[in-house]
Structure formats: structure tokens, C-alpha cells
Amino acid sequence: MNSPDLQLDEQKPTVLVIDDSPDVHRLLKARLKQEEVELVGHTDPRLGLEYARGTPPAVILLDLDMSEMDGFEVLRALKDNPATHHVPVIIVSGMTSMQDKVTAFELGAIDYVVKPFEFTEFRIRLRSALRVNRLLTMLSTRAQLDGLTGLWNRAHFDSRLAEELGRGARSASPISIAMADCDFFKSINDTFGHPAGDSVLQGLAKILRHECRQSDAVCRYGGEEFVILMPETRPADAAAVCERIRVAIENVTWPRHPERKVTTSFGVVGLNAAMEIDAAALVEAADKALYTSKKTGRNKVTVIELDAPVSAPSAVAA
Amino acid sequence: MPDMPARKPVLPLISEFAGDPEMAELVESFASDLPSRIDAIIAAIKSQSVTDLKRLAHQLKGSAGGYGFQTLGASACKVEQGLAKSTAPANEAIAAVDKDVRALVDLCYRASLTAPGAAPNRPTW
């Protein structure tokens, strides 16, 4: 997820149907054939719930009165789970009482369609729920983007890191993060003005994005500081990527101040294999590595392998 | 067994979507599946299983209307509601909805006649 601006989803949105009647599934499949959606169905609400948690769909069509598990209970479970709480749920039920409708909306349903339903109306209601899902996704993406550079912001980094550490611990795969800080940035601002400083930040963002892989998350951590999250990457490999970036930045000629080079210091920290570690400790270690780079001459990469036998910081470039 | 007209010709129950090309195949498959539903309903009655009978009625209630058999759906709803309210022992609960179940089975039978090549025997028990 290196380029947040390239998040156009080419895939059809998934609509999950949880209804204990196979007839209803057949019916929906035929009736929604022309719609740009991928239908996934479960007659067992428990399996439907499990599916939704694993692969949150764009919209859920939920029956209420099911023999295996009450639909309200399913709805409550969906809304209580952070993975699914934002997914619009349309209740599709034969239950017509006002109390059932009120309960469904209070529990977080977005719409309520009474069976048997009129399909033209049903399609329009489904489209409206899909639209809500699209807007929600867009909003949450926007909220995690940095306005100046177009990179992910710190909030995104924090949530991705927590996610990756959880995944890494389960799969025993390596992970690295790299902190990058522009050297003497204040003096660029002071000498050439803030617009020049801003274009340096934008230029650095462009290089970072260009040199990193799709699987990396490049984020602006704050001010002139950037952080790269590199899943499935050993610290030594992460350091090699950073070294490449360091050289690329060093060799740029900046249009606003061609006489003034810009350099960047890096602090890389990582695990060769998964171990229990919390995000804050990892970030702190990366900060420490960055500090070492700064203290020992700047424009260099310092790497710390947290699970190396001897974990002394080592500089890979001077 | 009350008023099951044995001699009068049976009128097939036609789906509201009979003329809808998008639905034709689905309605047919729903209709041709109905004899097995009837068998299941009769089996539930014979084994005095309120749970099975309620589930079968519930499923028909939710789906029949979608296939254009509104009256069938409404009839299934009546059976389900009759069983839902009941706290009586199984045999009494089932006896209490006997008339509604027979009406439901009759509608299922009539709807099943619309399936191509259908020649089911009129269900009795």
C-alpha cells in the first residue's frame, strides 16, 4: 500500500448474504445478476459471521429469524467487532413489527427490507448501502493521508504497525521499520523560505515512494520525519533499501536551491523472526538508531537488529 | 380430514412472475422442489416434530413470496405463527395447526403443478 492515491478498487464489491433459507440465496443470486457485485452466501449465521470477520464485505444482507442463531445477535456481533462494525447491514426479514425495525436500527442496521420484497426497490436500496460503504472507505482513507506529501500519516502508521506486529507474531515472519529525518531541515526553511522547505518534503516523499515496494507503507511521521514500515523484511535488507534512498536523495539537484544538497539520516530497526514486541518499543528503538546516525555525522543509515545475538548499533554507511 | 375436494379439478397456483423471463427458470426449480417440501412437512407431522415443521414453514414463508407465490408465503406464515405461540405438547401443538398445515400443503401441491412435467400425486396423510 505504497501509493494511497492509487487505491481505485478494480474488484466488484462483495455482498454477503446471511439467510438460513437456500431459496433466498438462489433468488438473490438471480435477481442481482446484473448488479456489479460479488455475492457470497451463508445459510449458517455463525459461518457468515466468521466470513465477515475474516473478509469484511461491502454490504451485508442479514435475515433476522434464523433457526441457528438470532439475526439480532448476529447484528450485535457484527457491530461489536472492529473489523465489521463499519459494514452497512441491510436487514432482509419477514418480521414486520415496528419493534423489530426499531431494534434493528438501534443496533446499527442501515436499512430494513421486508420479505417478500419488490426487487426494483431492493436493488436501489442495495446500491444506496454500497454508496455509503464507498464513502466510508474514502473518508477513512482520507483521514489517514498526509495533506502535503500525499503519503500515509502517522495515524495510519500506528494502526498498520499494530496490525503487522500481530500478523508477524502469528506467521513468525520478519519485520522492519525505518525512521528517516531530513538533515538540517530548519536551515533550509530559514535560508530559502517555507515554500522551499515544503517542496523538499514533497521531493523526499516522491523518492521514498519510488524506492520502496508496494508492500511497504511510507508515512510522514511528523515535521521532516518519515517512517517506512516494511513487512516481511529483515533489518539488513531494510537497511539496504534505506541506503539506496539515502544515495538517491543525496544526488538530487533541487530546482529552488541547486547549490544546496539535501541529505537524510536513517534509523532502521527490525526483527529477523517474529517475537513478542510492542509497537512503542520498536519505534523507540528506531528513534535510537536515528539518533546514532545524527550523532555520528548524519547522512547515514544505522541499523539495530532486535533479535541479533549482539544488538549493538552498526552503521552500514558513512 | 376436512374438505379436501377429491373430485374437483385442481387449479395450479401460478406464480406472479410466470411471465418474467428473468425468473422463469428459478420459479420452475422452486416449483419442482415443492413435492420434496411436502414430503418433509408430512414427515415432520408423522414424527410429531414441532421444530422441523416450524423450520419448514419458516423457510417457505421467507422464500415463496420472492418466487411469486405470495399466498403460499402467507399460508406458511400462519403455520409458523401458530406453532410459535404454542406452549402445548407436540401432538397438541401440531393438531392445533392441522387446518393451516393442510391449506399450506394444498398450496404447495398446486404450485408444484406448474413445474414442467410435474405429475405429483395429491398428498394425503
Q: What do you see in this structure?
A:
The complex is a heterodimer of chains A (318) and B (125). Chain A has 318 residues and is α/β, with parallel strands linked by helices. Chain A has ten helices and eleven strands. In chain A, helix 4 links the parallel strand 4 and strand 5. In chain A, helix 2 packs parallel to helix 3, helix 7 crosses helix 8 and helix 8 crosses helix 9. Chain A is elongated, with a radius of gyration of 25 Å. By secondary structure, chain B is mainly α. In chain B, helix 1 runs antiparallel to helix 2, helix 1 packs antiparallel against helix 5 and helix 2 runs antiparallel to helix 3. Chain B is globular. Chain B starts with 20 loop residues before the first helix and ends in a 13-residue tail after the last helix. Chains A and B meet through helix 1 of A and helix 1, helix 2 and helix 3 of B.
Any descriptors?
heterodimer; A: 318 residues; alpha/beta; six-stranded mixed β-sheet; five-stranded parallel β-sheet; 10 helices; 11 strands; elongated; disordered N terminus; B: mainly alpha; 5 helices; globular
Task: Please give the structural blueprint.
The complex is a heterodimer of chains A (318) and B (125).
Chain A lengths: L13 E5 L3 H10 L6 E5 L2 H10 L4 E4 L8 H10 L8 E5 L4 H9 L4 E4 L4 H24 L11 H18 L3 E8 L2 H8 L1 H18 L5 E6 L2 E7 L3 H16 L13 E8 L7 H17 L5 E5 L8 E2 L3
Parallel strand pairs in A: 1-2, 1-3, 3-4, 4-5, 9-10
Antiparallel strand pairs in A: 6-8, 6-9, 7-8, 10-11
Chain B lengths: L20 H26 L3 H15 L5 H16 L4 H7 L1 H15 L13
Helix pairs in contact in B: 1-2, 1-5, 2-3, 3-5
Describe, in short, the structure shown.
Chain A is an alpha/beta fold and 318 residues long.
Q: What's the mean pLDDT score of chain A?
A: 90
Total DSSP helices of chain A: 10
Category from helices, strands and their pairing of chain A: alpha/beta
End-to-end distance of chain A: 31 Å
Please, how many helices of chain B? Answer: 5
Instruction: Find the count of extended strands of chain B (DSSP E, 2+ residues).
Output: 0
| Biggest beta sheet summary of chain B | none
Major β-sheet strand ordering of chain A: 7-8-6-9-10-11
Please state the overall shape of chain A, judged from the principal axes of the Cα atoms.
elongated
- What is the percentage of strand-forming residues of chain A? 15-25%
- The N- to C-terminal Cα distance of chain B equals 9 Å
Radius of gyration of chain B: 14 Å
Would you list the SSEs of chain A in sequence order as H and E? EHEHEHEHEHHEHHEEHEHEE
**Structural class by sheet pairing and helices of chain B:** mainly alpha
Portion in strands of chain B:
under 5%
Oligomer: heterodimer
Q: Can you tell me the residue ranges of chain B where pLDDT is under 50 for at least 5 consecutive residues?
A: none
